[in-house]
Amino acid sequence: NASRNDLDAWWMPFTANRAAKRDPRLIASAEGMTYCTPDGRRLLDGISGLWCCNAGHNRAPIVAAIQDQAARLDYAPPFQFGHEGAFALASRIAALAPGDLDHVFFCNSGSESVDTALKIALAYRHARGEGGRTRLIGRERGYHGTGFGGISVGGLPANRKAFGHGLSGIDHLPHTYDREQQAFSIGEPEWGAHLADDLERIVALNDASTIGAVIVEPMAGSTGVLAPPKGYLQRLRALCDRHGILLIFDEVITGFGRLGFAFAAERYGVVPDMICFAKGVTSGAVPLGGVIVREAIHAALMQGPERAIELFHGYTYSGHPLACAAGLATLDLYRDEGLFERARTLEPVFAEAVMSLREEPNVLDIRTIGLAAGIDLAPSADAPGARGYDAMVHAFNVNDLVIRISGDTLSLCPALIVSEDQIGELVEKTRAMIRAVA
Ligand code: PMP
């Protein structure tokens, strides 16, 4: 019987002050597809933690690797030392990435990976004597984390307005979602590839010689599971090539199996100049993020008197030994259990199950791709977002279900270990919740 105030308290980001919360929802442990509350309730995790625990929770080999690493080497200062785990993980990640995306810069989160990629783009321009190419381009409805770079290229104006509207010199491509054209789409919608051509408009307004990079999520995850229309990313790549603009894929959600491949870049046959990753690289067990860059970018940065990136960017915890150990164990699990292929096999099963919700009350649209789905509910007439809010309360309190709800959009994104039975359970719990808030 949580009231709105209870849940607002729970949402508050300042978790340190627990006394300020009247009804903190606590979880005590987790295993595989479930969380356990302190009073012993088991919750089905339908969103892989927060789009991150792709191999499921508390997997024994990952736990063991972290424990073992903690006992041997807790920390290595990244500006003075390397360590085996960091090199091993970097080469494993590079081997999973397409083309000559061969070098990895480690950081600690998705937001840091985005700021790192944007800074690498600008440092690359600087190193090549193209310092005028400082404009950056994002996409409407893109989410790139909470750093200053991320909120600026991100396509959610509400996330910037309290912060001076973010950095200047940023443009946004239009988002590709159109309910009229693409309702109830499975996989890539047929309509919308031409929207990539808007890059030409931005180039015409600003001149290509002022533009450094474009950053997009191949599939916009947290803003509603918006898959790229067929051909869109290829078109964007071609336009970037034509104008000498770097293309960055933010694969913080799509990386590590969510779309059935190590990276979405592989699914779409498009090689970007950089890939941002985080979340799934450790299956959520330890914070870790990074940027994979193409050979030419690395070469340009690592020559000349300034060696820009080595000198001017990095984090205390870049390539942290515990994170790298967790990353290596996670990649082993993905490989040994064939989890990316598993996601590919389950994709149609998941899509069919989720699409069975289309006749439920207030369901305006459902989109599925890989093991991710976005479900839009009709907003209540007097209070947009309220239906989603009620659904969230209902999910936790009645259905023992954890999914992600923003506004009136529900997101499902189970771990890649999910069984067909658990997909059924996830969908039936979601159905019960949608009916309850009708
Ligand atoms: N990029 C994308 C595409 C994301 O989905 C997220 C987080 N949901 C981020 C960046 C930011 O990641 P973090 O919260 O780890 O900073």
TrEMBL record:
GO terms for biological process: biotin biosynthetic process. The keyword Signal does not apply. Its cofactor is pyridoxal 5'-phosphate. Its EC number is 2.6.1.18. Belongs to the class-III pyridoxal-phosphate-dependent aminotransferase family. InterPro entries: Aminotrans_3, Aminotrans_3_PPA_site, PyrdxlP-dep_Trfase, PyrdxlP-dep_Trfase_major, PyrdxlP-dep_Trfase_small. It holds the Pfam family Aminotran_3. It comes from Methylobacterium brachythecii. This is Aspartate aminotransferase family protein. The keyword Transferase applies. It is an enzyme of class 2 (transferase). One of its GO terms (molecular function) is adenosylmethionine-8-amino-7-oxononanoate transaminase activity. Keywords: Aminotransferase, Pyridoxal phosphate, Pyruvate, Transferase.
